[in-house]
Write a structure and sequence with these properties.
Elements: H1 8-18, E1 25-28, E2 36-37, E3 41-42, E4 52-53, E5 57-60, E6 74-82, E7 97-100, E8 112-115, E9 125-128, E10 138-139, E11 150-152, H2 160-168, E12 173-177, E13 181-186, E14 191-192, E15 203-204, H3 207-217, E16 221-227, H4 232-242, E17 248-252, H5 262-268, E18 275-281, E19 284-285, E20 289-297, E21 307-314, H6 318-337, E22 349-353, E23 357-358, E24 364-371, E25 376-379, H7 388-393, E26 396-400, E27 406-407, E28 412-417
Helix pairs in contact: 1-6, 3-6, 4-5
This protein binds adenosine monophosphate (AMP) and magnesium ion.
């Protein structure tokens, strides 16, 4: 039977061409963690913004202490004490010292700080046993950041260090592409939520959890997670109710050639005023039946143009749906996050295959595998797209190109690492 399957890259391109970064918004700093700056940030002030002490000690005039040494200490009367944040009333007159704490502004008249360690730590009078250079232990204005300087470029994905800098220059918010909210919808009359009782013909809904957790790993927010009404007439109204709350929809199941493939049946017949979804085979294994389109959210107030919400209809088998999420949905979400084009897909690494594998002609096979520190990758389980137990023990996808029907033991292959929180244990063991 002729197979009009679309190449994997062509399907991905179709998706990425239709998806745009979410419109920028100002969000509180901590909510901006992991989000992408939509504008360059320049320094609103110098850092430090006033000259201050880098040590606990005494603010002095360096010229008063010329010649101070262990065997020739110089005594200065102490005229007060200033702590960080305690105002800047004190003045250092010639021949005097003022006690100063780390971070306190250098008082007028002073040009250096002598740390306690160089003194007898006196309260009324201090004996100084070392001569400071002018500027010693003083953090000058603009030493770190100069007002007006470019601090962060648009497109920066914000980490703790970037957010700390924004706080340091006094910004309470960052202008970012907001975190995409993704609906994760399972379909299938056989599905039960974990914890429910299972009849003889039912299975637990693993995809909702699997895909929502994959969304978390992608740095986006899963909002609706679970099974939707699964009759053909109910599906679109149910999706329509979800649309105002989400930026992207991922469904699983109901897109192949079966009698009950509700997603396909319901969305193929969509009124063009509500959107359009393409369904068809993609030249990959697993994950052949795919669909992608745009749904129109018309819930906005009068006059607002409808908002278009991308939908990816992924196949139902858990391994297929997970791989499809990694390969298609994640790049789409990364684009919505505002990441640059060269950061949308996971870069492959090269590894040496342990054992030979077979692969269907004309389809890109993504086999589950485990990467080891010695640069090898070992297949985990077989090609079956129901193999959840093996999926859980994989940390990589072994890529077998369309034109190959087998790969020999020891051959170099491309491998897509899968997300992990900690370095995987490199025992190479498959369960
Ligand atoms: P479908 O694409 O709907 O024909 O589903 C293909 C296979 O995946 C069937 O064996 C389904 O029972 C199974 N499946 C579909 N959705 C889920 C899900 N959410 N969790 C676990 N298995 C599923
Ligand atoms: Mg189904």
């Amino acid at each position: 039977m002729p197979d009009a399957a679309v190449p994997l890259e062509a399907h991905l391109r179709r998706i990425l061409d239709a998806v745009a970064p979410l419109p920028p918004r100002d969000v509180p700093l901590l909510q901006a963690h992991g989000l992408v700056l939509a504008e360059a940030v320049h320094a609103d002030l110098d850092l430090p913004s006033f000259a201050n002490s880098s040590m606990d000690g005494y603010a002095v005039r360096a010229a008063d202490l010329v010649g101070a040494a262990d065997d020739a200490p110089v005594a200065l009367p102490v005229r007060g004490s200033i702590g960080a944040g305690a105002g800047a009333e004190a003045v250092v007159e010639a021949g005097t010292a003022v006690k100063i704490m780390t971070g306190a502004p250098l008082p007028p008249g002073a040009d250096a700080v002598v740390p306690y360690e160089w003194t007898d730590a006196g309260a009324e009078t201090v004996q100084v046993r070392q001569t400071p250079q002018a500027g010693a232990h003083v953090r000058p204005v603009g030493d770190d950041v100069a007002r007006g300087a470019l601090l962060l470029e648009a497109g920066t994905r914000l980490t703790s260090r970037h957010l700390g800098l924004l706080a340091a220059i006094g910004r309470p918010t960052a202008r970012v592409h907001p975190r995409p909210r993704v609906a994760v919808v399972s379909t299938g009359a056989e599905l039960r939520a974990p914890g429910e009782s299972l009849g003889p013909d039912a299975i637990y809904d693993s995809n909702s959890t699997l895909l929502a957790a994959a969304a978390l790993e992608a740095g986006v927010e899963p909002v609706h997670v679970g099974r939707l009404d699964d009759d053909v007439d109910g599906l679109w109204p149910a999706l329509q109710r979800l649309l105002p709350r989400v930026d992207l929809v991922v469904t699983s199941g109901g897109v192949s050639m079966g009698d009950f493939d509700v997603v396909k049946a319901a969305l193929r017949a969509l009124d063009p005023a509500d959107g359009e979804v393409w369904f068809g085979p993609v030249a990959m294994q697993p994950g052949k039946p795919q669909g992608f389109g745009l749904l129109l959210d018309r819930s906005g107030t009068d006059g607002d143009a409808p908002r278009s919400v991308p939908i990816l209809t992924l196949p139902g088998n858990p391994v297929s749906s997970y791989l499809s999420f990694e390969v298609f949905a994640k790049p789409a979400l990364r684009r919505q996050l505002g990441l640059p084009d060269d950061a949308l897909t996971t870069p492959t690494v090269r590894a040496r295959l342990v054992g030979a594998v077979g692969s269907p002609a004309g389809r890109r096979q993504l086999l589950r595998g485990r990467l080891a520190a010695d640069g090898t990758v070992t297949p985990v389980g077989g090609a079956g797209s129901h193999l959840m137990g093996f999926l859980a023990h994989a940390d990589a996808l072994i890529v077998v190109p369309e034109e190959l029907t087998s790969v020999e033991d020891g051959a170099e292959v491309d491998v897509i690492p899968l997300p992990s929180w900690a370095p995987a244990s490199r025992d190479g063991g498959a369960s």
